[in-house]
Amino acid sequence: MSEATIKVPTMAEMAASGQAPEVLFWVGCAGSFDERAQKVTKAFVKILHACDISFAILGQEESCTGDPAKRAGNEFLFQMQAMNNIAVLNGYEIRRIVTACPHCFNTLKNEYPALGGNYDVVHHTQFLQELIDAGRLKVEGGSFKGKRITYHDSCYLGRSNGIYEAPRSVLEKLDAELIEMKRCRSKGLCCGAGGAQMFKEAEQGTEDINVVRSEEALATGASIVAANCPFCMTMLRDGVKHYNKEHEVEVLDLAELVARANDL
Amino acid sequence: MQILSQLLFAAVLGFGIFRFSKNVGVIMKNIHSGRPLNRNDRNKERWRTMLRVAFGQSKMTVRPIAGILHLIVYVGFVLINIEVLEIVIDGLAGTHRILSFLGPVYDAAIAFFEVLALLVLVACVVFLCRRFAVRIPRFHSPEMRGWPMKDATFILLAEIVLMAALLLMNAADQQLQYLQAEHYKQAGNFPISGFLVPLLSGMSLESLVWVERIAWWFHIIGILVFLNYLPYSKHFHIIMAFPNTYYSKLDAQGSLPNMESVQNEVAMMLGLPAVNSELPPPESFGAKDVTDLTWKNLMDAYTCTECGRCTSVCPANLTGKQLSPRKIVMNTRDRLEEFGKERDEKIPKTEERNLHSYISAEELWACTSCNACADACPVNIDPLDIIIQMRQYLVMEKSEAPHELNLMFNNVENNGAPWQFPPSDRDNWKNDLN
Hints:
A: Rossmann fold; Rossmann fold; B: mainly alpha
């Protein structure tokens, strides 16, 4: 399947040929630029392609949602980003958006409506569940059968938006053994990156948040830590490295797990 | 003599209620000094939230031991207060156990209250043990030093003493009923205080009346003192929990409110039409002082009972950073009290003092906006909303963001990404997809 060249059309190209995609894939800054997160982007695109989903990206017309600016207190910058993005999205009459970043997801879904951007926004883990439920995506455990996987609830998908089940139901399809961390679901511990912390050094303290969280993940004995957020991914990978476990324990996004299970 | 006692009772009761109302009035005025915010929508959902979270204690029981103990004290408080109603009528009318005409219902109620009183007493002792013998860490954070600790201890001791007075009063009453003393009609069923009767059995009728009367007066005056203590104490949550949960944020917890006041300016900068041309340009940005916060933030501050569940789940606090969400809320109340006193000219006004005199930038910047604090709060307080508004002041008013965040702002503004990558590289990942 991966032999065939996968075309990733932009909205501009689609619009030029008078087409409208089923869904817009909002890639996000991390998914676009961060080397590790790019792999998640690619895995998700491969799944979309394999499932014959008509999708498009904004490409160079996409810009930061403004999430880190808003959480860092710069409402001016946030609104500038939001209004520009909304102008682009509304220009293309976008109805449905899927994104692999819970920060983009939260901002697009919950904060754009007040500025005139109303879309049906889903996180890629929800989208994957939909595809599975609709029978458009088949996932069989294969290489993951019997492996121990633990799942890290990102704050912006979990507590912030109450999405705990969709990612877990996707994981169940892998036939792996899902082992919950001591703090999970609404009690899940933050990875330490939210609220613009990703872009600055942490304040003086006794420990690093990501190290504490990674310790919890490692304590489950899992060989895979499943994540759903590019920032969590960075923080957890650093934490696993802190314990020199990077050769035994992989941190993988749900899209990567699904893609790998399907040999995409 | 009897009429004098009735008059005295009426005076004490009247004074207690008057003073309490006056202090509640000051608190209402303080809360109303916050910014406007519309929380009068979605009424059905609001009632449901209040019934579930405040009345039904749904978030308290997440931690079962504290939850059950609290439930006992809460139910005890609400139900035993039915008996206070009788005490008030008796005190004003000069009657004794006026509701005893209810017969078996009355007896059962008194028996039930006695069991509750004992349970409340035991729960308060366990609470004291948790605080001082087990030393649960969240009760010993830096912000708990001094008054907050004394406040908590006083409340628990007061409840123990009040319950003991209630039981002692009933014990003396039983003995008086047994001796067929005048006024003391046969009423009630006393499964708990019955055990105290042997302690009183050797006493004369006159001494017993004294014990009963002192315990009776002590109980009702104690309740009035306690009522008047509430507005100065974290214990005010017994009232505020209800309105505060009613006015909860109902949107997704992760959504931050839109700052409408800058929308016109941003639209103008981008060459878009004004959003609301009637909106006056903003005078200031973010929260410098308590009056810049919304009234709901200020209501949160008066609702906080300093349980510290927020701080005990805060990732920044857990890893030794200065930030403690409980401190943010306590500081907001402390500053609001100070502001109120300045406004009412009870203390001299100082220009330099504001909310930032209490809360440092280091605390504010340590927050990951993870919402664990808001999720853990048993009365739906939202510390994050205060933190973000204070950050807005630091960034938009004072240009005092940490250096790295300024770099991030520049990148977002110039490159459309928080990192320094050219926008033209945004979809380069497409090139090696296979």
